[in-house]
Design a protein that fits this description.
Length: about 180
């Protein structure tokens, strides 16, 4: 699996990581609900059908497929990381086929964040990053935890030196990491 230090192997020696985060748990909430419903239906059907070895085996393997599907989606969610550095935005995902998307901070022309009602209740949102009229790999990043903080950090990086202190050259406000 992708350990936190492995995502840092994509950073250049001159880069400084500002944020590292994975998508909000609500991203897999639909998968949790679907798996629970499938397992519940299988249990109900198992109770209604007469006891046979064939029926028991079919129900067992259907339940196993549902749990394996959920496990794969959970691993994919856990591995996916968004990293914002002082020079670029990186999205790393996948465990069989590993994919790393990147957008230089200097190419960002427009930045927006959105929060639905569910996002306000549970603490997630969407950040839309646009680049010079082109659709990039990181155009829309859904289910980000605390999107206003990601938005603020990106805004400080995009709009230059206003966010840095004179003494240290670092961003004025401390940032969070996961």
């Amino acid at each position: 699996m992708l350990a936190p230090r492995e995502i840092d192997e994509y950073l250049l020696p001159t880069e400084r990581r500002v944020i590292r985060v994975r998508r909000h748990w609500a991203f897999i909430a639909v998968d949790v609900a679907q798996t629970a419903v499938v397992l519940l239906v299988l249990v109900v059907v198992q109770r209604l059908l007469p006891d046979t070895v064939l029926g028991d085996n079919i129900m067992f393997y259907l339940a196993l497929v549902a749990v394996l599907r959920f496990t794969i989606f959970t691993i994919l969610w856990w591995i996916e990381k968004l990293v914002v550095t002082d020079k670029r935005v990186i999205l790393a995902e996948g465990f069989i086929v590993h994919k790393v998307g990147m957008m230089p901070i200097s190419k960002v022309t427009d930045l927006t964040f959105e929060r639905s009602l569910g996002g306000r209740i549970f603490g997630y949102g969407t950040v839309v990053v646009e680049s010079a009229g082109q659709i990039q790999a990181l155009n829309r990043i859904d289910y980000l935890p605390r999107p206003e903080e990601v938005y603020e950090a990106l805004s400080e990086l995009i709009f230059g030196e206003q966010g840095k202190t004179r003494a240290t050259g670092m961003l004025a406000r401390p940032r969070w990491r996961r």
